[in-house]
Amino acid sequence: MSDTIKIGKVTIPRTAALAPMAGVADRAYRLMCKRYGAAYVVSEMVSAKGICYSDRKTAELCTVTDEERPMAVQLFGSEPDFMADAVKIVLEYRPDIIDINMGCPVPKVVGTGAGSALMKDVKLAASITEAAVRAAGDTPVTVKIRSGWNADGINAPEMAKALEGAGAAAIAVHGRTRDMFYSGESDSGVIRAVKGAVSIPVIGNGDVTDGASCRAMYEETGCDLVMIGRGSYGNPFIFRETEAALKGEEYIPPTLEEKMRVMLEHIRFIIELSGKCEELAMHEARKHAAWYMNGYYGSAKFRGRCYQLSSYAEAEALAAEFIELQKSREINNA
Predict the structure, then answer these.
(1) Is pTM, for the whole model, over 0.85?
(2) pLDDT tens string 134-173
(3) Neighbours of 253 (CB within 10 A)
(4) CATH number for the domain formed by residue range(s) 4-247
(5) Where is the active site (predicted)?
(6) Does the annotation place 288 within a ligand binding site?
(7) Pairing mode, strands 97-102 and 71-76
(8) Catalytic: which of 62, 104, 214, 223?
(9) How far apart are CA 219 and CA 43, in angstroms?
(10) Region for 154 from its dihedrals, namely left if φ exceeds 0, alpha if ψ lies in -120 to 50, beta otherwise
(11) Domain segments of the chain: what residues?
């Protein structure tokens, strides 16, 4: 097995990539995951039509920094012409890859005919991809799909073949239908079927939460790269863990003190990069702080307090209190 894969001319380590997650995987999040070994990152999804109408958030969402490379900018839309025009605009930001979202299940995206709604219209999906590929020139275009619209419409292999024919350089597959949203179990068999249907790289996504499940995804599906989404919540260390698992090396989990230190560093990134005042930036940071505390004694109460944070100083104090709680419990249980 090669240590790298190629998407177009882009070389990516064959470990684990960070999935695009709207409202979560902003630049601060991507930088934290890259620091701990994410092989490849993708932007939050950006509306193709919004870009064409000079949406004020375009620069914020599409900017690619050298620290994040290799990185894709992800677009969503349901009209080939708008997608082509959006690609041309995005190219000014020099992404390594352009990704098209055909998997988002949320109603406000699906309602426009975009995201996973395109799983119901293979012909239109191929037309959108072909328009993007034509506009992108030498920049590879990839597509992220789901297993299908519902249990009666599992068509990911058919969709993948059509997208390959339209010029897609790789396909990422989330092993759930649109109807499942994020519930139930991801179906690795669908990802394996897609891998067997196309000759371009296939990226497997769904239910990868640790090193063992990452290794299992590779082994069970034959995919070329694994993509991690919710498994990275409050856990950028997962990329270090997956790399160790794939190399057969021992993984030493972070101590609570390290997790809290990284949490505070992540919050500082959010404040510095958001362009907002500290209080507003802390609104963005609250969910991340809560995720870093998952799985510990008393974490439910502390997560609730995370959602009240309004300053970095408060986050520091809460982290110190959380560490003290765990230490006192260890002493009492000794």
Answers:
(1) yes
(2) 999 999 999 999 999 999 999 999 999 999 999 999 999 9
(3) 12
(4) 3.20.20.70
(5) 104
(6) no
(7) parallel
(8) 104
(9) 27
(10) beta
(11) 4-247, 256-333
Q: Same topology for domains 4-247 and 256-333, yes or no?
A: no
Per residue in 16-37, pLDDT (tens digit) is: 999 999 999 999 999 999 999 9
In one letter, which amino acid is 151? Answer: A
Alpha-carbon distance of 61 to 95, in angstroms, equals: 12
Q: Which amino acid is it at 167? A: G
Band of residue 285 on the pLDDT scale cut at 50, 70, 90:
very high
Over residues 192-217, the mean pLDDT reads 98
Q: Can you tell me whether residue 211 is helix, strand or coil? A: helix
Tell me if residue 33 is catalytic.
no
Looking at residue 251, its amino acid is Y
- In whole angstroms, how far apart are CA 278 and each of 179, 269, 271, 298, 303? 38, 11, 6, 27, 20
Domain 256-333 has CATH 1.10.1200: yes
Nearest to 143 by CA among 118, 120, 176: 118
Rounded CA gap, 143 and 129, in Å? 8
Annotated binding residue 56:
no
* 282 and 312 Cβ atoms separated by less than 8 Å: yes
Q: Mind giving me the DSSP string for 131-189?
A: HHHHHHTTS-EEEEEEEESSTT-B-HHHHHHHHHHTT-SEEEEEEEEGGGTT-S---HH
Any known ligand binding at 234?
A: no
Average pLDDT over every residue of 234-262: 97
pLDDT tens string 96-135: 999 999 999 999 999 999 999 999 999 999 999 999 999 9
